[in-house]
Design a protein that fits this description.
74% helix; mainly alpha; 404 residues; three-stranded antiparallel β-sheet
């Protein structure tokens, strides 16, 4: 089984016992093993070669959504009583994404060789974080792996759904800005110069607004390439610095909370992630202090990450969770109250789950409202830009008509 990790896909062509031509694909470690296997089936292989990788669309990137689907499928298989190793094989066979399939088969080979499921996952830290691995380990130790996988799958699905809503909220205003910039640039480079040729024969002074627009148009015609290059480098450089520099990332995290509308969406999404992660980990039997450490990284914002770690330190000294949360003055009052009720009733995981549902629904509603609000705003922004340019171009014609 140890060698199975190196298995690759081969294409073979040959003839069967009746002389009919046959061809197909086999996963194996070497062409010699394939020929031996085919001979046992009565097939003489004339050609065996590695399956070529497609030029485009080969091994695809493994996304968080892929991991969520994989977890749900594994939970379903194990609930149906399918053995763990066989579950990996069934799930992998049904995938089109070669990257995900390769990842699952590597985990299968590790588990088949005697490695614990959680330890096999820890060998792929890019796809399975500490929270995921710790929950799986807890499920293995308690003998309720299928139940734990179901909880993890629900957690991942809720998390991915929330991420999609946030992306939707961010994408719409960005799309408005991009459309406005593109339309304005086209008008300045292609349309305004046509009016400039007409104005050159007027022999009269042009309005200041018209001269201003003509000046921008001339600059755009001469420097549009440099302007576009600067814009691309600026955006790309900012994103790259944000990834590499923690201080820059922290600045953007704090900025997001202060933005109108988007700040409230971010605030509610953080509350939802906090409640969902803490509910899942606490229900899995993870001690509260350890659970809060996982929650701090799941908030997705440096302000709340630092606040959660302070809450963890306070809880470690014996302070109730709800009081530590209230002292931070960052979490919503309703979330703090539901935490207090959960602690008093002994149903903290259940109350936090209900709070997570509430804030996820709040994010969903706010994103829908933002979408509805942005539609007239798009028309207004484009109307001001295009209308302003047209007024600047026709203003000299109106003035000329008044003179005549």
């Amino acid at each position: 089984m140890a060698n199975a990790a190196t298995a690759v896909t081969y294409i073979y062509k040959g003839v069967d016992a009746k002389g009919n031509k046959v061809e197909g694909e086999i996963n194996s470690n070497s062409p010699a093993l394939i020929k031996a296997q085919l001979r046992r089936q009565g097939i003489i292989a004339n050609k065996v070669q590695k399956k070529p990788k497609p030029l485009f669309g080969g091994s695809k990137k493994v996304t968080a959504a892929d991991i969520a689907v994989f977890t749900r499928q594994m939970a379903t298989m194990m609930k149906a009583g399918v053995p763990l190793v066989q579950s990996f094989e069934i799930v992998a066979d049904g995938l089109d994404n070669e990257g995900v399939k390769e990842l699952i088969l590597k985990i299968r080979d590790d588990v088949a060789s005697g490695t614990a499921f959680a330890d096999a996952l820890r060998r792929h830290p890019l796809h399975f974080d500490d929270l995921f691995c710790n929950l799986v380990a807890s499920g293995e130790q308690s003998g309720a792996l299928e139940t734990m996988l179901d909880r993890i799958a629900t957690y991942k699905e809720k998390t991915e759904s929330l991420k999609k809503k946030i992306k939707k909220a961010m994408t719409y205003p960005i799309a408005v800005i991009v459309v406005a910039v593109v339309v304005t640039a086209i008008l300045l480079v292609k349309v305004v110069p046509q009016f400039a040729e007409t104005f050159s024969s007027f022999g009269a002074d042009l309005p200041a607004f018209t001269l201003f627009v003509l000046g921008i148009s001339e600059w755009m015609q001469a420097n549009w390439f440099y302007a576009l290059l600067t814009l691309i480098i600026g955006i790309g450089g900012t994103l790259e610095v944000k990834k590499r520099n923690k201080n820059v990332a922290n600045f953007f995290d704090k900025l997001m909370l202060k933005l109108p509308i988007l700040g409230q969406i971010t605030y509610n999404s953080i509350a939802a992630r906090y409640a969902r992660t803490l509910s899942t980990t606490f229900a899995a039997g993870v001690p509260l202090i350890d659970a809060l450490k996982s929650v701090s990284g799941a908030t997705g914002n440096v302000v709340y990450e630092e606040a959660t770690l302070k809450i963890r330190d306070a809880v470690a000294t014996g302070i109730p969770l709800n009081i530590a949360m209230r002292s931070s003055k960052l979490y919503p009052t309703m979330l703090v109250q539901m935490t207090a009720i959960g602690e008093e009733s002994g149903a903290l995981d259940e109350m936090l789950s209900k709070a997570a549902d509430f804030y996820e629904e709040a994010v969903d509603n706010m994103v829908d409202n933002l979408t509805t609000l942005m539609e007239p705003m798009i028309m207004a922004v484009l109307g001001v830009l295009v209308g302003g340019l047209m007024i600047a171009m026709y203003l000299p014609i109106f003035q000329l008509g008044q003179v005549v």
